[in-house]
Amino acid sequence: MPIAPAPTPWAFPPHSTWDPDDDLVALGADLEPGTLVTAYASGLFPMPVTLDAEEQLGWFSPVERGVLPLDGMHVSRSLRRSARDFEIRIDTAFDEVVAECGSPQRSDGWITPDFARAYGRLHRLGWAHSVEAWRDGRLAGGLYGVSIGGLFAGESMFHRERDASKVALLALVDLLRDQYAHQRVLDVQWQTPHLASLGVVRRPRAEYLELLERCRRTPLPAVFAADF
Fold first, then answer.
1. Using one digit for the tens of pLDDT, what is the confidence trace for 37-81?
2. Cβ(62)–Cβ(105) below 8 Å
3. Domains of the chain and any CATH numbers
4. What burial class does residue 31 get, using C-beta atoms within 10 Å of its C-beta: 0-12 exposed, 13-18 middle, 19+ buried?
5. I need a surface site. Which of 73, 142, 147, 178 has the fewest CB within 10 A?
6. Euclidean distance between CA atoms 141 and 86, whole angstroms
7. Is 128 exposed, middle or buried (0-12, 13-18, 19+ CB in 10 A)?
8. What are the tens digits of pLDDT across the range 109-145?
């Protein structure tokens, strides 16, 4: 099971004080494992923000949260065919997946070296995981995120070959569709047009936090519950 990190010295604002019209909830704190686990369990995730020409650590809870229902992913026939061409692996190349997701060549990149190191630490404690699509012994695509009980908080994904990231997402959905599927949440932060085409829907913040409260008590998926 995941190793409990040292408690965070930081206190995040209570839900009742969050601005109902602003995705950004708080600034500051750090990226230590205990802080990250506390944040995700509270419905927050970190991203760098620039305010008054200064980069700061921001903590977000979207007013409209992007969630992929486990029975709602749009899977085309061509994607099903593509899936047969890849081998799915779990946690065999976590650092490489994060590095690819944070490639400086990506125009929307935000994963700095500090973020990569932080999620690497979280992975080694058993809280962060990668789902990888391989072909011919080569990493073709994948995704990574944080798993707490019934929550899988997807952070980012990448592909080197067509459909590889979608195949990794499909594999993650299949892994989460166990006997506790009705108590699980696959969080993707925001709904983008691309994610909407895959079945991602928006959930109001209050509804998401209610789902989170229930799913936090759900057992981890077996594939993520191995001893560390």
1. 999 999 999 999 988 888 999 999 999 999 999 999 999 999 999
2. no
3. 19-62 (no CATH), 65-224 (3.40.630.70)
4. middle
5. 178
6. 10
7. buried
8. 679 999 999 999 999 999 999 999 999 999 999 999 9
